Amino acid sequence: xxxxxKAVVGGIAALLATAxxxxxxxxxEEENGTGTEASAPDFTPCIVSDAGGFDDKSFNQLGYEGAKxxxxxxxxxxxxxESNSENDYGPNTESLxxxxxxxxxxxxxxxxxxxxxxxxxxxxxxxxxxxxxxDNDFDGTKDVDNVKPLLYNTAEAAFPAGYxxxxxxxxxxxxxxxxxxxxxVTIFMDGFKQGADYYAEENGKDIKxxxxxxxxxxFTGGFEANEAATSTARRILDRDADVILPVGxxxxxxxxxxxxxxxxxxxxxxxxxxxxxxxxxxQDVILTSIxxxxxxxxxxxxxxxxxxxxxxxxxxxxxENDGVGIAPFHNFExxxxxELRGKLDTVKAGIIDGSIEVxxxxxx
Length: 364
What we know:
Elements lengths: L1 E3 L7 H7 L26 E4 L10 H16 L4 E4 L6 H10 L4 E5 L4 H10 L4 E5 L16 E6 L2 H14 L4 E6 L4 H21 L4 E3 L16 H12 L4 E5 L4 H11 L4 E6 L2 H4 L7 E7 L1 H13 L8 E3 L6 E3 L13 H14 L11
Parallel strand pairs: 2-3, 2-4, 4-5, 5-6, 6-12, 7-8, 7-9, 9-10, 10-11
Antiparallel strand pairs: 1-3, 11-13
């Protein structure tokens, strides 16, 4: 394991200035006479990554940036620890307990078991678990009280992304593949397929979705940017897909390699962050990205913990509360149909008002 003290990641302030706060309610105004947040000198926030690390240009990085912004505003140091493999999750979490952390953010569903175990042993610590409900026995309730799950119904955002992919495709085939077949992965694939299918029915067109049939599909077996990620992407492209959605942090880099090797005109969709912004190497191929507003929800949770205003109720990000969304088309603005933006506004409104049903494990 590796511990670091990192500098503030650029661009956070701009995002927070424009984004709608998505968790824990609006932060009350507290000033120390200088126009900044009052410090919380006795509060120690901490965060542990999954194996992707804090520079994964995806959800680990987003969670870190939100926690770091909150720590800076509270005037305290953020203690962070990166995991190199799943064997680090338990020891890394316990190392933060030993550091005297008051609130511990654990990033990713893979840390759920380690988080629950640590929370049970340390009821005085406030835990924030990103992307999992802390329900490891699957009985519909949290396994321990002192964990706040941050969840994101990304199917709602993947639906318009799938709609856009179906509108953009020239071959009539769009594809997706994931890292591992977990609900937090397949929720993207579910929404993507539903959106593409909805477009096909609405417009009377034949759109084929490969890589996910609503029940099973193509997976790399992990979340590394390795040969499995590249070969899985190649198989999707070999089925004539000209839009591809890789779901699983760094595995999108395998799709980049497969696209380059194919010599075909293929568009890619990102997940979690706006990958066009986080990875300039994608800018020629990124159609859009399916967003989780994890920076803001993590920021709000740590701010609340630092002010002794923390609650353990699960947060679920939706289109309605701006917890999920899709990124701009960036370099594809002139390549998509002029009518698409208006159609996507209509689709989003329909999802929010319930006239368009999007099914997922996080749907009401």
